[in-house]
């Protein structure tokens, strides 16, 4: 087998779509030569040490691919960005987006038991959120021979996916990765889309709007063949590439580096035509405690979570016989790394993709967006709410953000911070931190003047233990003393 020299692809083109998905100014679009060399070196080391027949990698930043590279060969030639690789469990991120779209349309609730929408399932009480987060306690794999290497025709009906004990653990209490759970989610998508196969739903609702025309259920030329590498010799063995049938939602998709750059840009920023940023943020929220017992790694709704060097990465790793894939995205830094390779084991694709993002941030820290004033007009009543507030004697600052949002932060110590979304009824809902989901209300006196803030029964006053405000338990009438 001929091994091509390592190289970089030509200057990448923008891959973002939709509002906010734009490239950076020209002076920041290109990475520095030393950064590109460090990225290529990391990819080359990963391919050589992992003994991968071929490997491609990319970095997406500010809505565009800013670097792509290749090492090795496919059919004797260096693979370009349109060569398909199988992406395995990265498929699950696509299925999760389809389910969140159904939720946002009001066709289901994440708290619904799947049996409410999908008849005949042996686990009707498992909720949709539990299936998305691998916390339904379902078996990890379907019954029968290893599904990734056998034809889906062996399991023609949903009941064929389960043995006599479909649920291995109590639902909702532990993370237990379940490929078969995503088979149910694919069937759920088909049921709520009037019987249209999930692959067709994915094509029309997600892939076409994002311009991902090289992401398919079955391989389309040009594509890489999958290989196993002998553990004790530099020899190859071809791996099968079966159509997994009903198990397809767990890992069937084939894609390309360019398409996955588009997917990374979408996961970082959202796209109103597919799924908005708020729903994507919900997917990235840890759903259950991770099996390791630490928060170095976890799982949200269809996405894996990883803490690395103080940063939170969201994405997924994937494997199928002959292929490994990884995509990690850092939304705070607006950067993502993608790696594809065509061997069953060896390369640490997930660590490599995470390293690509870290290299860029180490060599070229993100340049912040320019500060800009809020879009007008400015509401004087909202502006009057800003400034210092006190919970008891603890000082906090209330700041006005975009779209009438508010942010509460402590001014001393390690108090509780939260951002709040404005609601139509004049209240605000907590988005994160201790006050996530709690309601912030502005309370007024008989004259209509602002008296205090009511946040989940906590009273915030303009002065520390303000005597005129309804502080729970009252304020000593003699006041402060020395």
Question: Outline of this structure?
Answer:
The chain is an alpha+beta fold. It is 23% helix and 21% strand. Helix 3 packs across helix 5 (179-192) and helix 3 packs across helix 6 (198-210).
Keywords:
482 residues; alpha+beta; eight-stranded antiparallel sheet; eight-stranded antiparallel barrel; 11 helices; 20 strands; globular
What's the layout of helices and strands?
Layout (H helix, E strand, L loop, with lengths): L6 E2 L17 H4 L3 H18 L3 E8 L2 E9 L12 E2 L4 H14 L23 H5 L46 H14 L5 H13 L16 E3 L6 E3 L9 H4 L2 E2 L1 H13 L7 H7 L13 E3 L4 E5 L2 E10 L2 E8 L4 E7 L7 H15 L16 H6 L1 E5 L2 E7 L5 E5 L7 E5 L5 E3 L8 E6 L5 E6 L2 E4 L21
Antiparallel strand pairs: 1-3, 2-3, 2-12, 4-7, 5-6, 8-9, 9-10, 10-11, 11-12, 13-14, 13-20, 14-15, 15-16, 16-17, 17-18, 18-19, 19-20
How much helical structure, as a percent, in the residues? Answer: 10-25%
By DSSP (H or I, 4+ residues per run), the number of helices equals 11
Shape: globular
First CA to last CA: what distance?
85 Å
**Major sheet summary line:** 8 strands, antiparallel
Gyration radius (Cα, Å) is 25 Å
Uncertain residue ranges:
1-6, 10-14, 16-28
Mean pLDDT: 90
Strand order of the largest sheet: 1-3-2-12-11-10-9-8
Q: Which structural class do the helices and strands define?
A: alpha+beta
By DSSP, the count of extended strands is 20
Strand composition percent = 15-25%
